[in-house]
Amino acid sequence: MTDRQRCYPKKLVLATANPGKKKELQALLEGSGIKLVSLLEYPQLVLPEETGTTFVANAKIKARFVVEATGHWALSDDSGLVVDVLAGAPGVHSARYAGLKAVDSENNLKLLQALAEISDDQRTAAFVCVVVLASPAGEEFVFEGSCRGSIGRQLTGSGGFGYDPLFLVEPDYQLSMAQLSTVQKSVISHRGQALRKLRQWLGSFNKESVKKELTSPR
Predict the structure, then answer these.
(1) Which of 29, 69, 116, 173 is the most exposed place for a label (fewest CB within 10 A)?
(2) Closest Cα partner for 176 from 192, 185, 188, 164?
(3) β-sheet bridge partners, residue 81
(4) Three-state DSSP state, 59
(5) Residue 157 lies in a domain
(6) Buried b (16+ CB within 10 A) or exposed e, 187-199
(7) Which tens digits make up the pLDDT trace of 123-163?
(8) Separation of alpha carbons 62 and 76, rounded Å
(9) Domain with 90 in it: what CATH number?
């Protein structure tokens, strides 16, 4: 596909029906001119099983499925919590750490139990996010971000979702991810970092595409 044939994405279908994730991603893409819709608008679609062994692989599985099913550019992310003393667990299994249908409270409880005897200085961890942008032409673009911290001994804060109430952001903040404001979280979070890279790419892609369109022979 040539640059002239490639269309700048005006609409992205997010490969999730999670309203919390859509809200966070929409905030991070605010002002980009891109309409973001979730799978709540495509109730007939069921995402395939995430069989990948890495965040990149799982993000690509979801992005490919959505772009093929909808015909629109797709935006997927696979993110999770990597705990050093647990050899990287829960990792790619973060959303289903306590079982296939586990909810956040069950995953958090299992993590607290797994770290019950672990000292504070050994509770280091990182949130990791991989974002994949896929086009109807079969192109895939990967953007990554990570945020270091540690695992607290109790849930604190009411914002965010997943493991946010347990993840203590260090060293700049002595707060959990769930206690940060939307602005603070967008600056330091793993997803915020990955989305800023995506926004930068979209901006440069748009400018370059317009430039080539204006200068290419008709």
Answers:
(1) 116
(2) 164
(3) 127
(4) helix
(5) yes
(6) ebbbbbbbbebbb
(7) 999 999 999 999 999 999 999 999 999 999 999 999 888 99
(8) 6
(9) 3.90.950.10
Which residue matches tokens 């980009």? Answer: 32
50 occurs within a structural domain:
yes
As given in the structure block, the two tokens for residue 170 are: 């260090």
Residue 1 placed within a domain = no
Total domains in the chain come to: 1
* Parent domain of 64: 11-215
Long-range contacts of residues 27-32, Cβ cutoff 8 Å, at least 24 apart: 27/182, 27/186, 28/186, 28/191, 28/192, 28/195, 28/196, 28/199, 29/195, 29/199, 32/199, 32/202
Q: What are phi and psi of 27, to 5 degrees?
A: -65, -40
Is 161 a member of any domain?
A: yes
Give the β-pairing of 35-37 and 11-14.
parallel
Query: Of the residues 77, 78, 104, 164, which is catalytic?
Result: 78
To the query of whether residue 84 is one of the catalytic residues in this protein, the response is no
Residue 203, pLDDT > 80, answer no
Q: How far apart are CA 60 and CA 130, in angstroms?
A: 9
Chain position carrying tokens 């799978």: 39
